[in-house]
Amino acid sequence: MSSTRAPDEADPLAALSGVQRQELIRLVMSIAKHMRHALRLATSTPQPSSDKRLSTRLYRLAMRSFDGWRDEVLVRISAVLQVPVPKDVDDKREVTPHEDPFLHVHFPPFATTLTHLEKREVIVESLLLLLLSLKSYDARSRVLLLHVVSSLALPLDSLLDIEAKTAKTLLETVQMTAEAESAKRVEASRSSNRWKIGLASVAGAALIGVTGGLAAPVVAAGIGSLMGGVGLGAVAGYLGVVAGSSTIIGALFGAYGGRMGGQMMQRYAKEVEDFKFIPVDGSSESRLRVGVAITGWVVDGEAEVVDPWRSVGGGLEAYALRWELDALTELGVSLSEILTSTAMSWVKLELAKITLSAALYSVIWPLAMLQTARVIDNPFSIAKHRADKAGLVLADAIINKAQGNRPITLVGYSLGARVVYSCLRSLAERGAYGMVENVVLMGAPVPATVAEWRELRSVVAGRVVNVYSKQDYVLAFLYRTSSVQLGVGGLQEIQLEGVENVDEGKLVSGHLMYRHAVGRILKGLLVGDMVLAEVEKGEITLKDLVEQEERAADRTIKMVENDKEMETKNDTSNESQKEVSLLDYEASEPVKTMHFETLHTDHRNGPSKNRLQTQHPLDSDVGELQQLEMRPDQQHGLSKNLLQMKQPLDLDVGDLQQLEARPYTPVSEPDPEVKDLESGEHKAIPEEDRERNMDAVLSRVEAKLAAMRMKRGGANR
Asked: How many angstroms separate the first and last alpha carbons of the chain?
């Protein structure tokens, strides 16, 4: 068949004219120049700066790595195109908007005359295989291809389709070759003791390079045949040595990395006991790109490690990272039980009166919120420490190719974002560039300092996205004991070139909402890498949760209004009662004294009478009493009391002595209920108000956590 191929079918790039080939390599070089400029802006530190020394080292390492990758790519493409690498190019942008707004904004097109070609997809196919011929799919190579697709006015789906077909072909080739080699070895073992490898063991080892170097012609022929079946046969030759080595292909998809990552993980085994990659969709096909999604807490068991990420996939081979499940469960149970209680609804109303920045940098948190610290601070501190260690293990796994030589996209929320943060810092310290393509951190409990985010940015070839919410009072509270003067990434923008900031305050009203909002958030950020059907399911669930939260808030507001109304009524009633008591005391006692003096003048001497008059004066005549009698106060019977004041009272000397000995009760005397509280004699909380009391909620959560620990301890024995 090769003899009947048209020239452009045998070598599509060679079919380009000399001018077109020069234009193609100039386009690639312009994009590389733009990428280098963006990296320089992200890693260089303006003068003066306290971290200039560290930044200089970071800048030097990042630039050296980038220049090495760029030179290797340009040399490979130049050799195939048979044109020299230009000394310099202008990185002029295309002003015409791209049809795909995602590509136009994040991977802007460059001016090129190649947009007029009919078979532009073939150029992308050829470039992809040329880049894979370098024995890896570098994250920077993927960003380069995105700019090429944008410049050629092609849709993003075209690149995704080409990547999917290429991945499928490469893996099928290795499997086909392994089966042929296995059959050959088994046949040979029947007549000779030279081969002692059983069929099962050989077949099982196919993807870890058993056939590497033994069947290069077969592998190359298989790739050409299979690529022809998916329309890529004409460009199969661009794979170079990769086409003849199943070892390289196996390494590309991570056939060796799992074993190496397991060995390296022993370094942190004492502190990170639980670390595992779980496929998000067990039936998904392998891809040329990998996505690792990391949960920040767990409530409903191991399933919740994967469930929030069901919408991640598409152009990615998606995995969820299981890490320290016990620590995450304790944190998740604590947060969920407390934050969904009625008591916390009252705290939210108090928090609405202040700004989070004010709460974060001062000590004006509501008392009920401060009470929760006894339950949630310890699980959060433990999980935060474990997140830092898990990030180091993840960095080891990436460096040792646990997921192959493929671009990796890392996403995480809450402490899952902390794992990503720790991983990227470790990669930067070790100079591991070109491995991570994109990063999305949601509600990250990490510092917002530019110096640290500069480290993160240096090892990410594509996009770094910080998703934050100024309404996330839970994150602000949890992070209050850390270095708050450095800021919190999940609460604010990061002021660094190359970091995208997305404010999701309208969607994420609280920290727990991230778990249900990840699909909706990522849909606009990871275009092409999301399963839209799963995103729609998640949005229905999210809508229901938002409505439930709104109803709960309305109920709380009504309860507050009812409490205020009852409080107002009680205050009015108490004031009226106190006023009546005061009038009864001030008015009725002098009347008794005066009447006594009238009845017993002959029986008592003058000095005694004068003393009583001085002690109990009555400065009201009958007219004033009539005016008081006319005051409307039907509820407390004030008129009746005033009428009784005018009637004669038959008191003897004993009655008078008891009257004089009665202690005066001040108006400001505290209520008996308050007295009980001050003396420490607390009344039992009514059942209907139990959920409104934070102490009761915290006691219930502590009991639940204790039961979980006992159960876990019994299972480990």
From this structure: 67
